[in-house]
Amino acid sequence: MKAAKPTILCVDDEEIVRASLREQLRRDFGDKYRIEAVEDAEAALELISELGDPERELPLVIADQIMPGLKGDQLLIELHSRLPRTLSILLTGQASVDAIGNAVNKASLYRYIAKPWGRDDLNLTVREALRRYFQDMLLDLQNAELRELNSSLERKAEAFFRFVPRDFLRLLGAQDRYETVRLGASVDLELAVLFSDIRGFTTLAESMDPASCVDFINRYLSAIEPAISAHGGFIEHIAGDGILVLFEGGVEAALRAALQMREQLAAFNEPRVAEGLAPIEAGVGINSGRLTLGTMGSSNRLKCGVVGDPVNLAARVEGLTALYGCSLLITETAMASLPDPHRFTARHVDLVVVKGRTAPVAVMEILEAEAEPWRGVRLATLADYQAGCEAFYARRLDEAAGLFRKVLDQDPQDSHAARFLSRCEELDHTALPPDWTGATVLAHK
C-alpha cells in the first residue's frame, strides 16, 4: 500500500484563484504532493482534522487574507498553534501591514506574496518552503535521536559511577571523562580513611538466605551512606558488610561522618528492636596519611583502588574496636592532625603493636560516639584517667594504679581503667626492661 502524499493546502474564497493555484501546484508538485483547495478557514480546519497526522502530512498552507469568517492571518495563527512546524504563505492583494505583521509575529509567516503572483516566484517559494519544512523535520528527528542517545549515555554513565565513584575519578583528574582513565593512572594525596563493618556479621548472615543477606546489606549501607556524603566522603570499596571511605576534607570530616553514622545506625535499629531482633552494632576505625589512588589490574580487568600504609592501619584500628569494646577508634596521629583537636573529646585507649607492624600506634576513643550515661561518667573521670595513662607510660606504676582506682571508684564499668590497673598490678614487682614502652603486642588482626 502506497504511503499517503503530504498535503499542500490552498485557502481562497475565489473559485478562479483556487482553480488557478490548484492547476499550477499540481503541474509543478503533484507527483509528490496532494494538492487541496478550500474556500474558507472553516473548511481548512475541517480538512486538517481529517488528516491522519497533520504534523507529517501538512507541510505548507497558502492562504488569502480577505475571506468570509476568519481572515487569513487569523487562520494562520490558529494553524500555527495546532501545527507549529507547518509553514504558511499569505497570497493576497489586500493584506494590510497590520495583518502581515500579525501573521509574521504570531504565525511565523514564511512569506507574503502579492496578487497577481508570478508563476516562477510562487514555484520557487513553495519549493524552498517545502525543502525547509522537511529539513527541519529531519533535524527534529536527528535531535530526538541525539537526545535519546545522550540520555542512554547518561544512564550508562550513572550506572558506571555507581561502581566507580565520581570523586575517585575527580581526584585522578578524569572528572566525568571516565573513558580517559588508563591502567596505571595514579595520584598521591593526603586523605582521611574510615573503615567500618558490622560486628558479628558472619553469625548474622548464617541465619539468612543469600537474597535476604544482600537485601540486609543494601538497606544498612543505604541508611549510613547519606552521613558519609554529607561530610564530603565517598565509599571507595565495599566488601560484604565492610566499607572503606575516603575523605578529602580530612579527619574532622571523617569524625563528623562517623558520629552521624552512629545516629543513622540507631535509627536503623529501631524497627529491628521493635520486632524483637538484636540491634546491629558496627565498629569504626579512622586514620589519615598520604595515600596512592590509582588504577590497578590488567588490560582485561581494571580496578580503581587505594593503597598505602595509612589504609592498612585504619583497617587494623577498626578491628580493635571489638577487642576494646569501643564503637569508634582513631589513631593519635590522625587526632593530632585536626586544626582544633578540642572540638572532640578523645580518650587514650592503648598503645598497640598491631599484626604486621613493628612500631606501636596509640589509639583513642571519641567520647561523643558513646551513649549516655557512659559518656557523662567518662567525661567526669577524664582528667584522672589521662593522668593515670601518662604515669603508666612514664613507669610510675604506683601512681598510675592509684589514679585508675580513683577512676574505678566513680565508674566501676570503665573497662579501660580496669585493664590499665590490672597491668600496673602485674608489673608492680617486675623489673621493666630498658626498652619497655608499655605497648600491647597483638598476634592477630
Fold and architecture overview:
This protein has 445 residues and is of the alpha/beta class. The chain folds into three domains: 136 residues, 3-Layer(aba) Sandwich (Rossmann fold), CATH 3.40.50; 204 residues, Alpha-Beta Plaits (2-Layer Sandwich); 74 residues, no CATH class. 49% of the residues lie in helices and 21% in strands. The strands form two sheets. Strands 6, 7, 8, 9, 10, 11, 12, 13 and 14 form a nine-stranded mixed sheet that branches. It has a five-stranded parallel sheet with strand order 2-1-3-4-5, with helices on both faces. Helix 9 packs across helix 10 and helix 15 packs antiparallel against helix 16. The longest helix has 45 residues. The relative contact order is 0.06. The mean pLDDT is 86.
Output the keywords.
single chain; 445 residues; alpha/beta; Rossmann fold; Alpha-Beta Plaits; 9-stranded mixed β-sheet; 5-stranded parallel β-sheet; 21% strand; rod-shaped
SSE diagram, text form:
Layout: E1 7-11, H1 15-29, E2 34-38, H2 41-50, H3 54-57, E3 60-63, H4 72-82, E4 87-92, H5 97-107, E5 111-114, H6 119-163, H7 166-172, E6 186-198, H8 201-206, H9 210-229, E7 233-239, E8 242-247, H10 251-274, E9 282-297, E10 302-307, H11 309-324, E11 328-331, H12 332-336, E12 346-353, E13 361-366, H13 374-380, H14 382-393, H15 397-410, H16 415-427, E14 440-441
Parallel strand pairs: 1-2, 1-3, 3-4, 4-5, 9-11, 12-14
Antiparallel strand pairs: 6-8, 6-9, 7-8, 9-10, 11-13, 12-13
